[in-house]
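Dear colleagues,

For the upcoming journal club I promised to circulate an example of a predicted protein-ligand complex. I picked one with pyridoxal-5'-phosphate because it came up in last month's discussion. The inputs are reproduced below in full, followed by the predicted structure.
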Amino acid sequence: MISKKMVNYVKNSSAIRAMFEEGNRMAALYGKENVYDFSLGNPNVAAPTAVKDAIWEILDTEDPVLVHGYTNSNAGYEDVRAAVAASLNERFGTHFAAKNILMTVGAAGGLNVILKTILDPGDEVIVFAPYFGEYRSYTANYDGVLVEISPDTETFQPKLDEFEAKITPKTKGVIVNTPNNPTGVVYSEATIQKMAAILEKKQKEYGTDIYLISDEPYRELVYDGAEVPYLTKYYANTIVGYSYSKSLSLPGERIGYLVIPDEAADSEDLISAACVANRILGFVNAPTLQQRVVAKCLNESTDISFYDRNRETLYQGLKELGFECIKPEGAFYLFVKSPTADEKEFCAKAKEFHILMVPGSSFGCPGFVRLAYCVAHETIVNSLPKFAELAECYFK
Ligand code: PLP
């Protein structure tokens, strides 16, 4: 028999799996080009050629025993971590060293490592709706309690009054994700400053340490010159979780890192505990070949213009049809208001037109749907007449 905890996880993940299977079923039935699948955040841009070149170069020139071996430290190769730290310092004016960087199995691995590191059963983790649904499972993995801040459906910026009211002596972590999945919103510097001030105040009031966990796989995916503040500069107890899944289009390679700055409370303990967590969660160390690859590609980036073109086409197209949504400043998602209160009903209706999207309730924000526009441009262009038919069902 599977564990009681797994029963819940399986139940919750079956909706996503069902959608994935439905996409495949529809593609087989109607032809792939006649299905408009906006359900998955899987980049449709190839990794930069520098990634392929780096792989060949490493395999041709480096010691295979070393390249494919366990790393000496569970944190990853020392020289890779030093290179990541130096690159961050150059870009953001920080002063990290190799010891502050822990290479991880993507952002998902990093989040699990840090939550395992800081959570005791019953500790609370605050998230701002709408949020990446996996935070629920990651928090539950370590018997933490997820505390949701309700969404501001006008701006999708965090509701700071509610945030302040919901911080308790049991609050151990706060997860922020900017640029955001599923809204594409970027939190402004003023918002971050206010959030940091609230956290400082509450830490003082309760005599606790509250870690701000910045989950930032979309940091590099911004449009129109949007600025994404580097959070360690605003609040000492910040941990950054980064991933190359989207920035270099390497989601299957499972590579990212955590930054644990010296300024974070009990930093040395956190760093060594996170290292142990990386090991005992079964990751052991982040994939070694990919560690070496990203170290060679620190100045590479994905083709933002591809996503930007998709963003403009989908956003303008849907607005013209009467759908309501805010223009994303980052990531590759559009969060659209459902024209009917039950967004699951709207998703079911869209499916009749071969359009697949994810209900907002998966992100703690019912009444909205998420469209992932990391798809081929023609998928978007060809989907617009179908969206027009869908719109006819609601706006006549
Ligand atoms: N956090 C957010 C907000 C995401 O959207 C995703 C993936 O879509 C992840 C974390 C996990 O990313 P990774 O592939 O780096 O584990």
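Two points we might discuss: The radius of gyration is 21 Å. The chain has 13 helices and twelve strands.

See you all on Thursday,
B. R.
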